[in-house]
Amino acid sequence: MGLPKLIDVCRADLFTGESELRARYDAVTITRLLRVRDEYQWVLSNPDLADRQFVEEFVGRTGLSESAIYGDLAIIKQLLPLLTSSSRDFHRWKANQMLLETYQMAKKRKDTKTMERAASSYAKYNRVDVEDEQVMPFDLIVVQPFTATQDPSVLGIKPLPNLDQRIKDMIAKYRRESMDIEDVEAEVADLEEGDLWSSAEGGNETDESHIL
After folding, report:
1. Would residue 192 be called left, alpha or beta, if left means φ above 0 and alpha means ψ between -120 and 50 degrees?
2. Which of 13, 75, 89, 171 is the most exposed place for a label (fewest CB within 10 A)?
């Protein structure tokens, strides 16, 4: 089985943690993804620099050929339009990076207070103290057995006595009152529009000559 396309991997997991990446992809793909992630971050931090400067920067960092770095740049340019939709994921990843860097720097200085604050912020930000949400057991949800009824008392409304008889009486009453109504078929009116308009135009000419 061949390696997955790097652009598809980046679209799906550009900011996914390395532990999760190891469970999904092979080592070669993870290495390429992490490289593109660093390059992507560099482009966001240096939006005004030219493509050539990007290539020179990462040829120097990675030791790869210019064609390989230009290939990465092509992928990054496809990812940039997704920045709006993925900005939250990017900033979450960036915040975690900053907290971890702060912790490591404090650890080197043996600054336990800063280490404690960074660890606390990291745990709070990533909500490690909150239990994972349980999946809703949709297969156990029972459909309510609804039954149609004409009884308004189920809604708390007092039913009218002898409702069926009242309906029959009202129908009979209005039938008697409407017996004098005569149904007439619709007829198309013969307006003789041609003669009407010609007469109107002739009348206008007569009036104008009279005015002159």
Report:
1. left
2. 171
